[in-house]
Write a structure and sequence with these properties.
single chain, alpha+beta, seven-stranded antiparallel beta sheet, disordered C terminus
Length: 157
Amino acid sequence: MALEMSGSYDIALPREKVWAALNDPAVLKACIPGCEELEQVSPTELKALVVAKVGPVKARFRGTVLLSELDPPNGYRIGGAGEGGVAGFAKGGAVVRLAEIESGTRLDYEAEAQIGGKLAQLGQRLVAGTARKLADDFFRNLAALGDGAEAPDAAAG
C-alpha cells in the first residue's frame, strides 16, 4: 500500500536552529512519537526503534534512517525502512524544506511511504489517518521547541 502526505508548519525559531534540531538525535528522539531508541551511526545514518499502533496492530519497528541531499540550512531528503515482525514493514522518504519567514521558519515536507504485511490489510483510510497523526505529532513537538517548551518526553508519545 502506498501513502503520500505533505504539510507545512511554522516554527518560531531561526532557520539555523530548526536545521540544528532536525539533525540532533536527542531532539529527534524526543519529537518522534513512540521512539524508544535513536542512535547516530554516522553523520547521515541513524538506527531507530519505534513503537507504533495502527488500529488494533501494535508493533515495534526497528529500522534505519538515511539523510541525503543535505543543503544546510535549507533542507534535505530523509529516507528510511523499518521491520515490524508479523505486523509488516514500512519504508519511505520525505523531502524537507526550510524557509525563513517573519515569525521564524516555515517547514514544508512531502513524504511517501510503502507499507506491507498486516498493516496494509487494515485499510488505506485507517493507515493514512494514523500516518498523518504521527507526522502532525512530530512536527507539533518540533514546533513546540520554538515556543520555549522543552523537548517532549519520549515516553509520552
